[in-house]
What does this fold into?
Amino acid sequence: MIDILRHGFVQNAFFAGVIVATISGFIGYFVVLRGQTFACEALSHIGFAGATGAALVGASSLEGMFLFTLIAAIGMGALGKRLSSRDIEVGIVLSFVLGLGVLFLSIYTRNTTGAVGVLFGSILSVTINDVLVTLGSGMVIILMLVILFRPLLFASIEPEVAEARGVPVQQLSIFFLILLALSVTLTVKVVGVLLVFALLVVPAAAAEHLTHRPWLAITLSILISLMATLGGLILAFIGHWPVSFYIVSLTSLFYFISLIIHALRFPRHYRELPHPSREVLPPSL
Amino acid sequence: MFAIFQYPFIQNAFIAGSIVAIVAAVLGYFLIVRGLSFAGHALSSIGFAGAAGAVLLGVSPIYGLMAFTVTASIAISFLGREIRERDVATGVIMTFALGLGILFLSLYHGYAEQAYSILFGTIVGVSRDDVVFTFILGLIILAVMAIIGRPLLFSSFDSELAETRGVPLRALGSVFLILIALTISITTQVIGILLVFALLVGPSATAIRLVHQPFRAIVLSIILGLTYTWLGILLGGNSPWPVSFFITALSFGVYLPVRLFSKGIDSKRSAEGFEKLSIADSHLAPRKDHHD
It folds into this structure.
């Protein structure tokens, strides 16, 4: 088991995994808090078109993904309102970019193996160069989030009050989506387009079930995400199943444990009360 | 141009595509009205695991698709009321299912090719049996929709009134999600898991912006869905580019101008509505001093 750590690609995988898990655990807290899970999902699928488009013109998949998700993030932010699961626009753009991705793939000599790598992650093919890029951009993301922490938190929880107090809610929203685009691009390298949700949303959602204190929730979220990523890598080297499967299973497991803890800790009548500033479905749906 | 229709697989694809387009357009209308875009997307992704599992077991992907999507749709209909929480829980189910799908495919040899055809559809792969199956299932879905359509619409627009009239809201919602699951299962054969959404949401999203009366919107949505599918097969059959790309591009290309153009109308309409509301309020509210 320890022998395997001597291989360069294994070390790279572990480094990249640790960096990406930290970033996604951190930014994921805000994604969950702001209810932007569908936007996150859409950004990752847009990244797929970016990656395949980059392969077409001979650029690296990271560059293509970042360019596409950046444009999409600015576009989504400029729409102004908060994006939620009820937005048809996100859905339509989502299916169009996937179609575009398919087109790029079919032009690009039908390289299905490469496509599967983008879709389901290829952490074992991470190079030292990728690790450095990930480290650099990861530090920028975390620095920005720490600087903007208070206004962003305020704008996420009570957008109207924050706006009245002079917080630039709209600009913050666009800037946050740009940071999210960058994080999605980095996360795709580890778990793939289809499973970005597993690292960006699930650990933070689990952490939010356990505590209401922001910093504690972020710490827990990073811890869960780190445990899932490292556990997934170790299990993949012991077993013979894909890394992303183990990572997804572990984060889902943490989520269900957090659900159980939440149910035990908070009495039912308290849970039934919705948060005043959050959208609730009408009883018909 | 039309010479491609002499091939039996194009004929099969054409018939299956037409059935699927009609069913998806009808269900898509209700999906949008009920604000279930994300649930639709999640269910189609969940189908991937089902299809991959069926491939591993050596049975037709449609059975796996149906088993997974129907189970997941029942699970989703039991989730909480708060949208944010619901999205996350739906997402967790979806991601886990996708992870399972990868596992199944990695156990099966011929990993990449199979994944590709499930995800993006293979129009060549539609057999005569598939067409018959799609037809029967499509008829069943439409028949159930014909029965529950009116109460479903009623409950989607005014749930409180519907509830006082004795419409069983929860049961209707669950049945509807199961129908969505079945629709996704049959649509997948034609354009693949990742693009099911284009046929399900694209035509109805455009139709809703153009026409307000529900029945007309559904009819328009069917017409649009059929047009996209037929043109997609025609263009895809005559070019090296995939059919699924053409269908999504048409769907997006029509939606975009409609969305941009009807935006003005939409805001004007809501402004009118607001005006009416404030007039209605002014009967109850004490009169303000007038300066004019």
Notes: Chain B touches chain A through 67 residues (CB under 8 Å). The two ends of chain B are 69 Å apart (CA to CA).
